[in-house]
Specification:
The chain is an all-beta fold. It has strands spanning about 5, 10-15, 20-25, 35-40, 45-50, 60, 70-75, 80-85, 90-100, 100, 105-110. The chain is globular and about 40 Å long.
Length: about 110
């Protein structure tokens, strides 16, 4: 069973940047796709970004394209989400996921 632990969230002003990390353990990390989702208060959990086992394959939700970058380091069993030009509407609890497993999330708050 895979365990996922997110980190890197925090409070940032609009226009700022954060880098989220998700450390995975418990199975062969490098062979699985990884994803980031987010959930704002009162809203459904939504897809943000994903990366295949090959780092060439990345996917983004339209509102984050050009601002967020997903990457992975298979040697460290870690996936990252670099978030630039943050907006107040990016405020949410950000979750890492793979193969049906979810982390507990890391809070990102963007002030206007």
């Amino acid at each position: 069973q895979v365990q996922l632990v997110e980190s890197g969230g925090g409070l940032v002003q609009a226009g700022g940047s954060l880098r989220l990390s998700c450390a995975a353990s418990g199975r062969a990390f490098s062979t699985y796709a990884m994803g980031w989702f987010r959930q704002a208060p009162g809203r459904e959990r939504e897809f943000v970004a994903a990366i295949g086992w090959s780092t060439e394959n990345t996917y983004y939700e339209d509102s984050v394209k050009g601002r967020f970058t997903i990457s992975r380091d298979n040697a460290k069993n870690t996936v990252y989400l670099q978030m630039n030009s943050l907006k107040p509407e990016d405020t949410a609890l950000y979750y890492c996921t793979t193969g049906g497993a979810w982390g507990r999330g890391t809070q990102v708050t963007v002030s206007a």
